[in-house]
Specification:
This protein is an alpha+beta fold and 583 residues long. The protein has helices at 3-62, 80-94, 100-114, 155-162, 214-255, 263-277, 316-324, 376-407, 417-434, 448-455, 457-474, 498-513, 543-559, 568-573, and strands spanning 119-125, 131-137, 147-149, 166-168, 186-194, 197-206, 282-289, 294-300, 310-312, 328-330, 348-356, 359-368, 438-445, 480-485, 488-494, 517-518, 524-525, 529-536, 565-567.
């Protein structure tokens, strides 16, 4: 054998020896593991035998162990698959965009299927931190929407205050419980959270004792999570939408100040804006009369006969808001002893004072047929709008006052000549369009210069004011009366023929003749007037010609003895009707 062959043989033997050594090592390790497993099994058998021995000894001393207590009767045992299915269906429903209250009812129905109860209520935490019952699931239940729940007592109030679920096995033993379900025995209230805050409560009641378990709490928390998130998202959405409405309202009100408008136009626009912001009910704007210290409705919808009412300061909700200069919210007017009826069937009311230049000029009022409608966010919006609206309204009042001073006679508060002539042109255009009649009358105080010279200008001024008062007394609101200057007055009587016009002016003449005027020294002062009337269309087609015909009739009355009324047609015919002597 060569040396090379001998080396290969030694090398092969060495490899076989090493492989055998490794295999031997692995075999020993496997044997040790098998022995270890056997030892563990033996130990477990020994432990089991020891427990059995202990049980046997216990049996000898105490007798057999009592069987475990049966579970408390509740809803059918719910497995994890049922919970997942309910959560999935509920979450899918929230994303479907259906009616919000439908989702709330769905949560209560699923809660009943998982937990089992006789009455369930969903309470929502409002912006003010109060509880509002939104949905109720119970036999014969009615919709409790917007029903406020007192926070002074009750399990729901406790759960909200402490932010923890409360489970009562027997409500008869818990002084916090306030009766809800008739014959209730057990109750469970679970707070639903979103963003770390409680946004709603699930309040469940059963006629059986000790029904609800800790597992039920967890199930309701899981089921209510999508609801809580949806409520929180809805609240944020509503808040943003309210802010957008508020900004839009402020913009619309600010536009009212860009050009001169009369008070009536401003009030109508303000009323429209307020109704867009208020979620429910009807609105009214009341203005304060500084002379009478009373509020009168100047713009309204839905108030009916109440729109004619005059409300003294301090009386009713609106009167108190004006007197105090503060916002007043009433959730139920049935509890207000001095409530003054506004909207028929109203239950809730909010009154916001209109403040301008540091004083109250009116009240923005809203009433609804549902109680507890006006929440803090609505009140805030109305307050902001009222603040801006009061400024615009006051500017409109000042503009109207300036315009009134420009078109009225300061002594008698009647319209002046320039406004009277302009109004006559407007009324004539309308009369032509609708083929209507109208009458123009000129009135003049008899021997007024002598009265002034004899008794002085103070008596003369009182005489002119007496004539103005008589004219306002006998004409309609749609008619126009004016002082043209000196002792000359005029009137436009709409839709009046000769007989009707003569009757009105005769009543004015009679009232002036019956005035008990006295001089500065107490002597009686006689006062009479004469008048002439022209008719459209028979006496003239334009304002200038009608005025000249009425003036001619007036002078004919003066010529024929004063203290009488003459029609232009009588002048044209050359005959005047009988009248009292001039005296």
């Amino acid at each position: 054998m060569t040396s090379r062959a001998r080396r290969r043989e030694r090398s092969g033997c060495s490899r076989m020896s090493a492989r055998s050594s490794r295999m031997g090592t692995r075999g020993e390790s496997s044997k040790r593991r098998r022995r270890g497993h056997a030892t563990s099994r033996a130990r477990r058998r020994g432990a089991g035998a020891g427990r059995e021995a202990c049980d046997a000894m216990r049996f000898c001393h105490n007798g057999p162990r009592a069987p475990p207590a049966p579970p408390v009767a509740s809803a059918p045992v719910t497995d994890f698959a049922d919970v997942l299915a309910a959560l999935h269906e509920s979450s899918r429903a929230w994303g479907a965009g259906e009616d919000f209250d439908v989702h709330l009812d769905d949560v209560l129905r699923r809660a009943r299927a998982l937990v089992g109860f006789d009455q369930g209520m969903l309470l929502v935490v409002d912006e003010a931190g109060g509880l509002v019952a939104r949905r109720l699931l119970a036999p014969g239940a009615t919709d409790p929407t917007r029903l406020r729940v007192p926070l002074a007592s009750g399990l729901s109030a406790w759960a909200l205050a402490h932010g923890r679920a409360v489970r009562v096995a027997d409500v008869a033993d818990d002084p916090r419980y306030v009766r809800g379900l008739q014959d209730a025995r057990s109750s469970l209230v679970v707070p639903l959270r979103a963003g770390g805050a409680v946004v709603a409560l699930l309040s469940l009641e059963s006629t059986r004792a000790d029904v609800f378990t800790e597992q039920h709490e967890r199930l309701l928390e899981v089921l209510g999570t999508p609801l809580a998130l949806a409520l929180d998202a809805r609240r944020v959405h509503d808040r943003l939408r309210q802010q957008i409405r508020q900004l839009d309202a402020l913009y619309r009100i600010s536009q009212l100040a860009t050009e001169p408008r009369d008070v009536g136009q401003v009030l109508a626009a303000m009323l429209e804006v307020a109704e867009d912001v208020v979620p429910d009910g009807d609105c009214a704007i009341l203005l304060l009369d500084p002379a009478t210290h009373a509020l009168r409705v100047r713009a309204s919808r839905g108030y009916g006969e109440a729109a004619r009412a005059e409300i003294p300061l301090g009386r009713g909700v609106t009167g108190r808001a004006a007197a105090l200069g503060q916002v007043i919210v009433v959730d139920d007017v049935a509890g207000e002893p001095d409530y003054i009826a506004g909207v028929p069937g109203a239950r809730s009311e909010v009154a916001v004072p209109l403040l301008a230049d540091g004083r109250v000029i009116g009240v923005l009022n809203a009433e609804s047929a549902r109680p507890g409608v006006y929440r803090p966010e609505h009140v805030r919006s109305l307050a902001v709008i009222a603040q801006q609206a009061a400024v615009v309204l006051r500017a409109a009042q000042l503009h109207e006052e300036t315009r009134r001073l420009a078109i009225t006679d300061p002594l008698t508060a009647l319209f002046n000549r320039r406004h009277f002539v302009g109004q006559l042109d407007e009324h004539l255009r309308r009369a032509r369009r609708y083929q209507e009649t109208l009458a123009v009358a000129f009135l003049d105080v008899d021997r007024f210069k002598k009265l002034n010279d004899t008794h002085g200008h103070n008596v003369g001024d009182r005489a002119l004011q007496g004539v103005a008062g008589a004219m306002r007394q006998w004409v309609r609101d749609s008619d126009e009366v004016a002082r043209l200057g000196g002792d000359e007055f005029a009137a436009i009587l709409l839709q009046a023929d000769g007989a009707a016009a003569r009757g009105v002016i005769e009543r004015i003449r009679g009232s002036v003749a019956g005035l008990e005027m006295k001089s500065e020294t107490g002597e009686p002062v006689a006062l009479t007037l004469s008048a002439g009337i022209a008719l459209f269309p028979p006496d003239g087609a334009d304002s200038e010609y009608l005025l000249s015909r009425a003036d001619a009739a007036l002078y004919e009355a003066k010529r024929r003895g004063r203290n009488r009324v003459i029609l232009a047609a009588d002048v044209a015919a050359g005959s005047a009707g009988p009248g009292p002597s001039a005296g």
